[in-house]
Structures are given as structure tokens and as C-alpha cells.
Amino acid sequence: MRNRAISGIRTFRLLLPLLLAACADKDDVMLMVEAHRGYVNAQTQLQIQALVKGPTQGLQYRWFSGLGQFDPQESYSPKTTFNFGPNSTHDRVWLEVWRDTTRVGMAKLDVSADLRETSIVGERRPVFEVTIIEVPRYDPGGGPDTRAEIGGKVTGDPTKGYKVVIYAHADAWYIQPVPYALHNIMPDETWKSWTHTGSDYAALVVRDDYKPITRLDVLPNVQGDVYARTIVEGKR
Predict the structure, then answer these.
(1) Sequence-distant (≥ 6) Cβ neighbours of residue 70 within 8 angstroms
(2) Which one of 67, 82, 117 terminates a domain?
């Protein structure tokens, strides 16, 4: 994909309708495509992730743009990076999934950015620290039938406008306990939820309009809309 200059004084709010691809037979896959805004210094950049349900061995992913704002890509990874073109605020991302010479799935995602000019001169970024106090058990297999309690604390005067996102790690990082869940920070700075189990657990402090990705290979760093992060191993 082409790299383009990024303005340091613009932020974007994304509108991300999702579409599912239909399954035709046992070799086909079900797809859901989602996007996450790029982080600081890359605010016209999106991280696009395909969530695949079905047999994944030998899959190849082919990415296209409906408006031609980035070059077609092929990869064996279910994710890619998208850049808006100059003066462009919307596009359509197409994904085709192939196994050998057979297309086994297809999905599309409309991406749109609402540009809002904001000055960063004199703007002070809040500093938070998040901890996990109630640590769930170590269970590297995890799975949808597991359940445990998790909770912690956010320090640094987390006023209204911030929430906590929880992830548990099995074969990847999965948001907890349901897709797109954001958890309130209580007046005493604590947060609490239940979670499916895993080998490790993570908590992120984010803005309350943050759009979390439900499955990640690598957690986002502390930058952009992520203000704090902690990772702990499950209790053995």
C-alpha cells in the first residue's frame, strides 16, 4: 500500500458497517471484517482485520479498494493496513478469501472518516495507570464455556470519557467478555467484569468512543486512543 503524509492535527471518527459473507459448502468460510483507527501519527490509517469462522488452513487473503485508494494486496494473514487517499474521507474495502484456486469467502466493509480539526498546541495528554487486582486462573485452552471474575483499578484521575477494555489470550487476544465490550471505571477508580479464561489477561484504558477489535495477534501500544495498558499471567 502507498504511504502518504499524515497531518498531525486531525482526528477521525470512523463509521464501520460490517457485512458477513455467506457459506456455500463445508469448505467455505464465514467472514466478518472490522477496522480500527490508526494510532498517533497515523490518523488516516486503518488496521483492517478479518474474523474467520471455518477451516483456515491454506487460506490466502486478497484485499481490494472500491475507490482505488490503495493497491490490491495478497497475504496469508487475515489483516492488512489501509490508508485513505489525499482529501479522501470514505472508501470500500473488499476481501476475497481463496484456498488454492477456489474462492471460499468474500466480504466488504465501508469505511468513512468524519474530519474534525483540533489543535494540539498546549494540549496535555492524561496519564493513567491500570492494574489487574483480581486475576483469573491460568487456562491456556480458554474457550466460550469458561468463566472467571476479573477486576482492577485505574489511577490518575480517570474522569468521565474513559473506559476499560479487557482481553484474554488463548491462541490470540480476544476481547472480553463479548465483542466490542467497554467497561465503566467506577468513582472509586475500580473496574470489574467477568471473562472467558486464557493464559494471560490484559486491560487497556481507552476513550469511551474507542472501537476495539475483537481478535488481535498483538495488543495496541499506549498511544493514540489507548492511554494505559497492563498484561498479567493467569493465576496458577
Answers:
(1) 1, 2, 82, 83, 85
(2) 117
Does 124 reside within a domain? no
| Inside any domain, residue 189 | yes
Q: What's the pTM value of the predicted model, to 2 decimals?
A: 0.57
**Looking at the structure, do residues 112 and 136 belong to the same domain, yes or no?**
no
* Count of positions (residues) in the chain: 236
* Residue 4 confidence (pLDDT): 34
User: What residues make up the domain containing 140?
Assistant: 129-233
Question: Are 1 and 8 within 8 A, CB to CB?
Answer: no
For the ranges 37-41, 56-60, 222-226, which has the lowest average pLDDT? Answer: 37-41
Same domain, 97 and 152: no
What does the pLDDT look like over 137-156, one tens digit per residue?
999 998 889 999 999 999 98
Residue 200 has pLDDT above 90, yes or no: yes
The H or E element containing residue 80 is: strand 79-83
Q: Does one domain contain both 24 and 83?
A: yes
- Using alpha carbons, list the distances in angstroms from residue 56 to 26, 52, 59, 143: 12, 7, 6, 18
Phi, psi (rounded to 5 degrees) for 37: -60, 145
Instruction: Indicate whether 102 pLDDT > 70.
Output: yes
Q: Distance between terminal CA atoms of the chain?
A: 44
